[in-house]
Every structure is written in C-alpha cells, then in structure tokens.
Amino acid sequence: MPEDVSQESRTEEIGGNERLRRQEEQLREHHQLLVDLAKRRSLHGGNLHEALREITAASAVMLGVDRVGVWLYNDTRNSLRCALQFDAGTNEFPEGMEISASMQPEYFKALETERIIAIHDTTADPRTSDLADRYHKPLGIKSLLDAPVRHTGRMVGVVCHESVGKQRTWTAEEENFAASMADLVAMALDGCERKRAEDQLRYHAQFEKLISGISTHFINLSIDEVDQGIRSALQSIGMFVEADRSYVVLVDPSGLSGTLAYEWAVDPSKLRTTGTVGMAAVDYPWYAERLLRFENIYVPRVSELPPEAANERRMHEAWGTRSAIVVPMVYHKTVLGFLGFNSTTREDAWSEETIALLKIVGEIFVSA
Predict the structure, then answer these.
(1) What is the pLDDT of residues 347-357, one digit of tens each?
(2) How far apart are CA 279 and CA 297, in angstroms?
(3) Distance CA 270, CA 278 (A)
(4) Which pTM was predicted?
C-alpha cells in the first residue's frame, strides 16, 4: 500500500512538473512575441493598419484561435467598429462591421469595468447573451477572450479573440497575453497620433510658407497683374489643400448678389465662365446670413446640410461637391465677396487650422 501511494505521488509530481514546464515555455514564447512586436516599426511609425495586421495575425497564431479582431469606438462612442480582423482560415483581413452599445449593454458595461473578458461559452455568459443570436451563433463562435484597449485614460476599443466551432477554457497565461496585445494596440494608437501631429505641424509650416510667398508676391504686383496673381494663387492653394475647385465670388455694392470672378479647377473642362455666373443672396439665405456675420462656413459633408440650406445643398450637388469651405472677404466691415474651396472626392476634407489659414488668403486678396 505505501508503495502504491508513493508511486501515485511521484506520478503527480512528474505531471505537475510537466505542467509547470509547459507553462514556463508558453510564457517565454508569449514574452518573446511581445518583445518582437513591440520593436516593429509599424507600431511606432504611425502605420496603424499595418500594425493591426501584425498584431492580430501574430496573436491568432500564438493562441491558436480562428479570428482576432480590433474594434474601436466611433466618434460618438455608441458603437464599436471593426478596424481590422484576421481570419486564420482565409488569411484575410476583413473590416467594417459594427456592433451597437444600445443592443449589447452588458457587454459594453463589461468592457468599461473589466481588464479581461474571458468567456468559455458565449451562449451562456450574460455579458454576451445579447450578441449570441446576432453575431456568435451565425459565425459559430463558441468562446471569446476579449481585452479592452485603454488609451489616454479611457477605453477606446477591444481586441477580440474568437474560437470558432469549439469551446475554449482560457488559462491565466492566455488571459495575460491577450491583455498585453491590447497594450500593443494602445501603443500603435500612440504612434498613429504622434505621426498625425508631426504631419500636421509639417503641413501647416509648409502652408504658412506658401501663404507668406503669395503675400510677398502680391506686394510687388502692378494693377494689371493682380488678376493673374489671384488665379495663380487659387491654383497653388487649391492644389496644396487638395481641393478640386477654388474660386472667388465678388459681391455687388448692393450686397444682394455676387458674381464668379476667378476660378481654378483640377479638371479645366469643368471651369465655369467667370463673370457670367451670378448668385443672388435671396436664393442662398443660409450662406448669406453667415457671410454677413463674417463667419467662415465649413461644410464637412454636403449630404448633411440642414433643411434650411436646401438651396445650398442643391447647388453643391449639381457641382458634385462633397465638402466645402467658404471664407468671407471683408474690408472695413463690408463683405466684398468670398473665397471658396470644394472637394468632389472627399468628405470632412479640411481642419479648422486650414480654414483659419485660408482666411488669411482672403485678406491678401482684399488688400490686392
């Protein structure tokens, strides 16, 4: 009897040592991968899409799961959008799906309060029961290991590890690894924001240099050269801010109408005949009201103009405009006209800083 007990103890000891050895080996593999990913240029260089590709693919292989996705909050924080997802079965990276907070309140509550959401059975766990019929069952997702991404002090998204077709009981080591992958996503977001800030500084420095050059050029122009100077400036600035059309409308002394005086377009065939295109203030009251208050008008999305700007919306739609800027040109508290930039290819095309610099261009034209 003592020999049997001793043999059983030795067997348990050997088994325990083997489990400990596997855990230590797994931890070393996790650590090595995390160090390798943390050194990747994509994480620090601002290429968020490439960073997410590397993180999700590596995580899927290390944890042996079918899909790993990174979901980020939208601007209003009422839904999560799939920024990128790696599918191990197809080696593809789909994106774009959204889940709404109002339809999955328990899951979103867990994201805000928990470091790791380890779900062994997606159909039974109350945190994901609202997602079962809409998302998990159709895709065959049995288990989840989700790690909220926290950036600049708040939760901004989640890294989702999905086991398809079979349930998984997640180990503590796997949970810690998933949390570390979320930290890498936060690092990639840092790199993206840093690069964006650097690009903006560089962009505005170059823009200010361009405007300074235009200002200096106008000082030296004769009266006969002003018209060509304005046309050249519209082209230079339009190309710099990636507009598809830039123009100047001059208002008549009565302030009741305006006439297209100067225009530049990426496609010259779409230029309108200057001097013949008129705009009555009464036809565009939404614009007129704001210009008379000397306000810059920024339309990030023509499709979202309010009902009271119906005429302005129809005008832009006729031109194929998706985003627009209108800057008043003011002299001695009188609106002499306005400077406009349209994009037919992009929505929300410009920043407030760019609009402020365009205001300076209008002032240069007024002084010419």
Answers:
(1) 988 888 888 88
(2) 17
(3) 17
(4) 0.69
